[in-house]
Specification:
Blueprint lengths: L3 E8 L6 H17 L4 E3 L27 H13 L2 E8 L6 E7 L5 E6 L23 E6 L2 E7 L8 H9 L4 E5 L6 H14 L2 E5 L13 E3 L15 E4 L5 E8 H10 L2 H4 L13
Parallel strand pairs: 1-2, 2-3, 7-8, 8-9
Antiparallel strand pairs: 1-12, 3-4, 4-5, 6-7, 9-10, 10-11
C-alpha cells in the first residue's frame, strides 16, 4: 500500500429518473477519476434520489435488483476507469426493498453489498418503515491501485449506533464508506468524529447537497488519527469537510499514518472488557 488513497465524495443532486441518475452518476465518476480518485462514493440511495415508495401494493416500485442494469453499469464503469465505486440504490427484494450499497473494485468485481441495518422507523409518513433492514456488517479487502485496504460501510442512521462502527472495527475495517441523506449539523458530525476516534479508523461520508430535501452537504472524511508522536497534544482528525454546494470533493486518506497509529495506539482493543458488555445486546 502506498502512503495514501484518494476518495471522491460525490455530493451531487439527483437528476430525476432512474436513467438520468445513472447517466449523471457515470458522468460524475468519470470526473472523479480525472481528479485522481481511487474510490468514488455516492450519497444514500442514489438510484431514486432517496425517494422511498410508500404504496403498500407496490413496495418495490422504485427498487432495482442488485444484478440489474443500474447497479451493474457501475461495475462495468469501475472496470473501465480502474477505480472502485460505491454505488447506492433502493434494492428490490422478495421480502421488500432495502437501502443498500454495492462496492465494486477497480476490476469491476463486487467486493460486498451492505444493506442498512438501522432503518429510520420513526412513525412518520415518509420514514423508512416500508423498508427491510439488513442483518450483517460485512468487511472485505478492497484492491485499489495503491494496494489493499479493509473496508466496510454504514448508511446514515447506522452511525448513531456505536455498535455499528465497533463491529466493523473488530472485523478489521480500516475505512468506512458511509452514504448519507440528512442534515449534517454539529451533532451528527460529532458522531462521525467520535466513531473515528474511538475505533481508530477512517470514515468517509457522502451526503446530498442543498437544496435536496432535508440535506445540506457537509460530506466529510475523518481519518481517526488523534495523536502523533511529534505533537504535544491531539490533532484534528477532520481531513475534509465540504460546504453545502453540489460538487465532487476529493479527500486524501493517509493510510500509512493510520496503520502506524493503530499499531501504536492499540488500547481500544487491548483494554476492552467484553465480559461486561452483555447488556448491550439485550432487548
Amino acid at each position: 500500500m502506498n502512503d495514501s488513497i484518494n476518495i471522491a465524495l460525490l455530493q451531487i443532486l439527483p437528476a430525476g429518473s432512474l436513467a438520468q441518475n445513472m447517466e449523471k452518476g457515470v458522468r460524475c465518476c468519470r470526473a472523479a477519476k480525472a481528479q485522481g480518485a481511487d474510490i468514488a462514493l455516492f450519497p444514500e440511495m442514489w438510484s431514486s434520489g432517496y425517494a422511498i415508495p410508500h404504496d403498500a401494493e407496490k413496495p418495490n416500485a422504485l427498487a432495482v435488483p442488485t444484478d440489474g442494469e443500474f447497479v451493474m453499469r457501475f461495475g462495468l464503469l469501475a472496470k473501465e476507469l480502474e477505480m472502485a465505486i460505491g454505488i447506492t440504490f433502493l434494492e428490490k427484494g422478495s421480502a421488500g426493498p432495502k437501502n443498500s450499497i454495492c462496492l465494486f473494485d477497480r476490476y469491476g468485481r463486487p467486493v460486498y453489498k451492505y444493506s442498512k441495518v438501522h432503518i429510520c422507523d420513526f412513525g412518520e409518513p415518509n420514514d423508512e418503515s416500508v423498508l427491510c433492514a439488513g442483518d450483517d456488517f460485512p468487511v472485505a479487502a478492497l484492491d485499489t491501485a495503491k494496494g489493499d485496504i479493509k473496508v466496510g460501510s454504514m448508511i446514515c442512521y447506522d452511525r448513531e449506533f456505536p455498535e455499528s462502527a465497533r463491529i466493523l472495527m473488530l472485523k478489521g475495517a480500516e475505512l468506512l464508506l458511509v452514504p448519507n441523506a440528512c442534515p449534517m449539523e454539529i451533532n451528527r458530525l460529532s458522531l462521525l468524529r467520535g466513531r473515528a476516534y474511538e475505533d481508530m479508523l477512517a470514515i468517509a461520508t457522502c451526503n446530498y447537497p442543498a437544496p435536496h430535501p432535508d440535506c445540506n452537504g457537509h460530506s466529510t472524511l475523518f481519518d481517526g488519527v488523534a495523536y502523533l508522536p511529534e505533537l504535544c497534544g491531539s490533532r484534528d482528525t477532520c481531513v475534509l469537510e465540504a460546504d453545502g454546494s453540489e460538487g465532487i470533493y476529493l479527500a486524501r486518506l493517509d493510510i500509512a499514518m493510520l496503520r502506524e497509529y493503530r499499531k501504536r495506539e492499540a488500547q481500544n482493543l487491548r483494554n476492552r472488557r467484553s465480559e461486561l458488555y452483555g447488556i448491550i445486546s439485550e432487548r
